[in-house]
Amino acid sequence: MAADVDKRNLEQEKKISPQNGQQIPGSRSWIYKRMWTLLVVCAVPLFAFGIKYYQDAQLLKRHEESVRTLGAEGFFLFSSLDTNHDLYLSPEEFKPIAEKLTGITTPVDFEEEVIHDPNGETLTLEAKMQPLLLDSMTKSKDGFLGVSHSSLSGLRSWKSPAVPSLSFSASQFRVFLPPKNKIEVGDTWWVIPSELNIFTGYLPNNRYHPPTPRGKEVLIHSLLSMFHPRPFIKSRFAPQGTVACIRASNDFYYDIVFRIHAEFQLNDIPDFPFWFTPGQFTGNIVLSKDASHVRHFHLYVPNNKSLNVDMEWLYGASESSNMEVDIGYLPQLELRSTGPSTPSIIVDEQGNIIDSRDGSSEPIKFVFEEIHWTSEINREEAARRLEVTFYPFKKVSYLPFSEAFERAEAEKKLVHSILLWGALDDQSCSGRTLRETVLESSPVLALLNQSFISSWSLVKELENLQQNPALSEKARLHLEKYSFPVEMMVALPNGTIVHHINANFFLDQTAMKPEEEGATFSFSGGFEDPSTSTYISFLKEGLEKAEEYLAQ
User: Fold this and answer.
1) What confidence tier does 352 reach under pLDDT thresholds 50, 70, 90?
2) Is the pLDDT of residue 175 over 70?
3) Looking at the predicted structure, is the pLDDT value of residue 347 above 90?
4) What residues form DSSP beta bridges with 420?
5) How far apart are the C-alpha atoms of 59 and 65, rounded to whole Å?
6) What pLDDT is attached to residue 198?
7) Element (H, E) at 477
8) 8 A C-beta contact, residue 331 and residue 130
9) Origin, by domain of life (predicted)?
10) Measured between alpha carbons, how far is 481 from 502 in angstroms, rounded to an integer?
């Protein structure tokens, strides 16, 4: 028995002890795993460093090749289009160029028209208006000399809203709800897309009656018809249409800010057309996410500028007839809800009517809960996002006159100042061509952001500023250089104008004739057409002249 025990012990020692130079298989496997783990841990950062080094080397190589191929100016243009700086143009980066070249904008899917629920909630809107101040028009200064009475007949007779009060189904306001891919606070989208661009030009002037509205256009047309019976919900000039932005949101409600570019035809046959174009309509709507309830609605023409309406009228029946242009001030044009939308009937849990609203009974009394937003941006930021959607040139901030010079002094930059007859960032503008071409081109945007503080001002506002002791000298210097209709200037922070060019002269210099050799299309998506290159030269000349002034 002792021999058996000794034999078993010997066998166990053989199992746990290495013999003849061999290791136990389990031990060898554990060591290999530790070694591989260590190698992997060391190799990962080395591999990542190698990839980064290779990518940087390739990027540097592409950068050098690009500069050799395009030259410094050409590479500057390319870089302004290459938003992610990978030295490749993706389809998304090329999209604005394609739209400018083809004149075709990516289509927007319209929702089907909503069938209104007769038992749904109803919203009542009231229209208010103060007519245009005739003495704010330039032509009033000479007593409208040469302006026929028939031309202004529609303007003079429009003194009150066409429909002072009107009820709508709450579900009609579904058109303001965002599409499925635009549900975050701050998102913007086209409710009614613009159909005009630099290639299509503008719509005819010789028209009296608007086209039949379709789809989402129906509600906008109905709203504006409360002011005047002939609203054109798509203006003759770009950018036209309606844009919306989510200002605030919670689980049940949106607060949506919107902006509309539309106009009215005030005259009818036999008088020649008279176009009345407010700078913009804006406002907001607070509605439930299923559009069954509207808590608040407000639409108005902003009156915070000294001039806010553009007017154009024909002196003949054809498109080639002479046209007069003027601008004026409209104190008030607005729609406002009288209260939240309310149902016409109230039913119990079984669907039985327990109360109703009809013409012979008192209105149903409701108490509404207060809305608390879980996510929001301020109204100014929402308005800015709408503005940039309409006007890409506003990707550069344009500051008020006084603030621009203060910022330029603080940042040691020059002021890029535009002085004009009508507002640059709405439809009462005398600088349409400028803002739709060079000011929104990528190279100009890049240079303005890098070296300038930008500002635009109305002539009338600077005339008023001459009474301001702190700003009178800067205003005077600007007005001395101004020529109708638009003057672009480069100024020192102290207000000294070092360089300027008139818009008409600028456009004449950059106008392209088909017969000119080497003529190319002019558009603002980023290709350096004559307008863009000329404006960049103007800005660079301003920088050079400023150095001379500062050196004195």
Assistant:
1) low
2) yes
3) no
4) 458, 486
5) 10
6) 62
7) helix 472-481
8) yes
9) Eukaryota
10) 9
Range 391-512+526-551 has CATH code 3.40.30.10: yes
27 is written with which tokens?
């031990």
DSSP letter string over 159-215? -S-S-SEEEEEGGGGGGGSPPTT--STT-EEEEE-----TTT----S---SPPPP-T
List the structure tokens of 198: 């630099």
Residue type, 42: C
Please tell me whether residue 120 adopts helix, strand or coil conformation: coil
DSSP state of 496: -
426-478 pLDDT, tens digit each: 776 666 778 878 898 889 999 999 999 999 998 989 999 988 988 999 999 99
Query: Most confidently modeled of 17-26, 196-205, 532-541?
Result: 532-541
Give the Å distances, CA to CA, from 324 to 64, 140, 144, 221, 235.
54, 13, 12, 27, 18
Residue that the structure tokens 């303007």 belong to: 155
Global pTM value = 0.71
Segments making up each domain of the chain, as ranges: 37-102, 121-344+367-386, 391-512+526-551
Q: Model confidence over 532-550: pLDDT tens digits? A: 889 999 999 999 999 876 6
Contacts of 362 (CB under 8 A, 6+ apart): none
Long-range contacts of 110-116 (CB under 8 A, 24+ apart): 110/215, 110/216, 111/174, 111/175, 111/215, 111/216, 113/215, 113/218, 114/171, 114/172, 114/174, 114/291, 116/169, 116/171, 116/172
**Residues 301, 335 contacting (CB under 8 angstroms):** no
Q: Which two tokens stand for residue 211?
A: 């086209």
